[in-house]
Amino acid sequence: MRSMTGFSREQTNADWGSLAIELRSVNQRYLDLHFHLAEPLRQLEPAFRERLRDRLQRGKVEITLRYRPDTGEQPLVLDDERLERIAAALAEIRARLPEAAAPTALDLLGWPGVTRDAAPSLAPVEQAALALFERALSALEEARSREGTRLGASIEARLVGIEAQVREVRTLMPVILARQRELLERRAQELEIELDEQRLGAELAALVQKADVEEELDRLDSHVAEVRHQLTADGPIGRRLDFLMQELNREANTLSSKSVVKETTLCAVELKVLIEQMREQVQNLE
């Protein structure tokens, strides 16, 4: 189980310069990739994208790659074409003005456009960037797994709370029915109405039918068991858990609508709170 939230950063230095890569991911319904790559390494985006799609299923992921080349000891390269044009011009000047002093080699090196920096080979930089990306991606997966473990523990704590509320409602039902019987008898006495056992039984049966939540409690138990099963399943589980949160909330609403006493209403409210807390955690799961 993995969260969609994570961060990783890796850096490397070599004689060609330095590379730094950052991967940030947050929750998103689908896999949404955003690249911010140094211009000389933009061609690596397809390779990065393929690896991310192979190993991540959901989340908004930002990939930032910075490259600083080391230009301190780059050799100078002569522009042969420009140098030839300068030599031709000097020959023409000497033909016209033989007495003119010829420029030195150092003078020519200082002439604009005669020299340029040698372009470094990007092959070793690209290889290093790919290796660095693999390290960063593995670190991101580990971070998402650690966060997923924490989310799983939080969800499990809410599941325990839901089970406690279900047990509470089941415990309350006999008490509720006995209390309702007493209430019916008291009201009958106040109104001076005689209730025989048959009529009292019929009234209680109608009340029981209205307040019967055994089916809802059973479904709540079933959904809790399925959530636990999903927490130990392989692969992405976020969408399935999101569906289960909807089902849990539906049963809690039905339980609330069937409530005839304050105690079961409070239990239904607590159930909704626990389910909403779980839903917020599930939104971060891959």
How would you characterize this protein structure?
The chain folds into three domains: about 5-70 and about 125-145, 2-Layer Sandwich (Ribosomal Protein S5, domain 2), CATH 3.30.230; about 75-115; about 150-280, no CATH class. The chain is built from eight helices and six strands; from the N terminus they run βββαββααβααααα. It has helices at about 45-55, 80-95, 105-110, 125-190, 195-210, 215-230, 240-255, 260-280, and strands at about 5-15, 15-25, 30-35, 60-70, 75-80, 115. The strands form two sheets. A four-stranded mixed β-sheet has the order 1-2-4-3, with helices on one face. A two-stranded antiparallel sheet has the order 5-6. The longest helix has about 70 residues, at about 125-190. The model has no long low-confidence stretch (mean pLDDT about 85).
